[in-house]
Amino acid sequence: MSYLKLAKRIMNDELSSEELVKNLETPNVIVLQQVILKLIQHNIKSDFICRKLIEYSNFMDRKFKILGPCKLGHLAIYSLKELGYTKEYKQIYTNLGKEDLHLVDLIDKSIKTI
Questions:
Q1: Of 27, 70, 71, 81, which is most buried, counting CB atoms within 10 Å of its CB?
Q2: What top-level branch of life does the organism fall under (predicted)?
Q3: CA 95 from chain center: how many Å?
Q4: How many Cα atoms sit within 13 Å of 84 on the Cβ side?
């Protein structure tokens, strides 16, 4: 299955919770973005998810762009907060530069207005 088809299946809620978690290892930014958004939407949590979000919080390179200046790393940091991994979120968030702080906050504001 192509990554585009997989992303569409995720957006249409066609995957189980277990399949969503498994796809956190998919090497495609769009798929990862959709998986993370669904994890938040369905409030799915696990130690594995927390570890993957921490790993993805470092994905700040241009090749990890998801929308405008926001990268997968910004979404992962926001997701830690939304899923209740407060300690991990605070450790990462407080060490961000001004621009990255702004982008995490922008994602926070943007998603909450949807």
A1: 71
A2: Bacteria
A3: 18
A4: 8
